[in-house]
Amino acid sequence: MATTVKGLKGVIQVPGDKSISHRSVMFGAIAEGTTTISGFLPGDDCLSTISCFQKLGVDIQMVNEETVIVKGRGIKGLKEPVDILDVGNSGTTIRLIMGILANTLHHHTLIGDESIAKRPMKRVTGPLREMGINLDGRQDANFTPLVIRGGKAKGIQYHSPVASAQVKSAVLLAGLQAEGTTSVTEPEKSRDHTERMLEAFGVQVKEDGLTVSIEGGQTLKGTHVEVPGDISSAAFFLVAGSIVPNSRIELKKIGINPTRTGILDALKKMGAAINTIAANREAAEPFADLVVETSSLKGTEIGGDLIPRLIDEIPIIALAATQAEGTTVIKDAAELKVKETNRIDTVVNELTKMGANIEATEDGMVIHGGTRLHGAQVNSYGDHRIGMMLAVASCIAEGETVIENRDAVSVSYPQFFNHLDLLKS
Ligand code: S3P
To answer: Could you tell me the pTM of the whole model?
Structure first.
């Protein structure tokens, strides 16, 4: 990618939220009646979810790239698939689908790509087994290929050792058809899209502090889902607009669910100039138009219950920190090691190649700011968020940057490079 950019200017509509898009197809599939989805993210991960549910007998039509119609089969109506279910690169698909398939007595084999094969699944298969569900897989059901035979779930009170919306959602989805009440208590609050969307489909979900519970035997009714722009995708432009000189970027209709806005809190604390120019806070998933302008950043400390609210944004925050004055410490983020790549290692290694002063720690990283980055040959290692972070880094690097495996961005943001180019012109 070309050498230093003179400024990023323009208006961008980032694609739909990945977490919400997955759930809209999944919940639509097990609802009674039809669900229409607008603003759907046509990224590889969400297309994997569509393909899995089509194999489970669900009629899913893409009217256009962002409008999807799902003809629900009801919670007991999924068919036994004649083929394996391939989730591609998508952790959300494999973890949530296990909760949905838990109460069928069908046979399912779940696989994914090389990255999925390394990601821990015991965090979901463990509690599902406790509920009485038959599951198996490599290393005692910790790794794919996984086989799920289902069963008749009994409600459990599950205390999750990690703040993970994927774990919480899988257990709650299994709980939908379980005997009695199922609850999940987390160490910190993770994103709550499942809770909000189940309510929109007519399911009662109770929240009490860090505990969410659901009564078994409830059914979902098809509805309309409007997916806002993904704040995790917007994050790349929030940082790009902050660190590339002479920039002003307007981002339209970005989801601002409070369980996802840690990036706004962190960047504002670092001194970023981000303003909300219009907002709808009453929607099931609130959204707003955001404007970012170039500013001087300062180092900060990020940890504790802020981490689940910005876990996917840490790679791009690390880049912002290389340009900040002073040191940034990111801690309590060991979960980064089990994302699409080990994101502590990939962020540290790739940014080091570009001249950053950054060290890995056991549960995060320390970044000494104020460094000038230079072009280098770097690699996304197939991780979409690493690819996008490196592309933003290339905008401020002196000299040419080559990003290997840059196509990985299609997992969550197929038009990312086009949008970045539009802002440069
Ligand atoms: C997601 C939850 C998060 C996040 C992932 C999407 C979801 O993972 O990192 O990109 O849609 O539920 P964990 O729940 O494992 O933290």
So the answer is: 0.98
pLDDT for res 425? 76
Decide whether any atom of ligand 1 lies within 6 Å of the 171 Cβ. no
| pLDDT tens digits for range 278-302 | 999 999 999 999 999 999 999 999 9
In a domain, 193, yes or no: yes
> What three-state secondary structure class fits 271?
coil
Is position 282 within any domain? yes
The phi-psi region of residue 9 (left if phi > 0; otherwise alpha if psi is between -120 and 50; otherwise beta) is beta
Q: State which of 45, 48, 191, 386 you would mutate to test the pocket of ligand 1, scoring each by most atoms of that ligand within 8 A of its C-beta.
A: 191
pLDDT digits (tens, 9 = 90+) for 20-74: 999 999 999 999 999 999 999 999 999 999 999 999 999 999 999 999 999 999 9
Q: How far is the CA of 62 from the centre of ligand 1 (A)?
A: 24
State whether the beta carbon of 328 lies less than 6 angstroms from ligand 1.
Answer: no
CA distance 238 to 248: 10
Say yes or no: 260 and 185 in one domain: no
Closest-lying ligand 1 atom to the alpha carbon of residue 165 = 14
Whether ligand 1 lies within 6 angstroms of the CB of 232 is answered as no
Quick one: 155 and 240 in the same domain? no
User: Is 312 a pocket residue for ligand 1 (Cβ < 6 Å)?
Assistant: yes
Within this chain, do residues 50 and 158 fall inside the same structural domain, yes or no? yes
Q: Where are the beta strands (DSSP E) in 267-361?
A: 273-280, 287-293, 301-302, 327-330, 357-361
Q: How many residues does the chain have?
A: 425
Q: Which of 196, 226, 256 is the last residue of a domain?
A: 226
Q: Please tell me the residue having the least CA distance from ligand 1 atom 15.
A: 164
Domain end among 226, 261, 279: 226
**Domain membership of residue 155 as a residue range:** 18-226
Q: Which active-site residues does the annotation give?
A: 312
Q: Does the CA dihedral 178-179-180-186 come out positive or negative?
A: negative
**Domain CATH code at residue 88:** 3.65.10.10
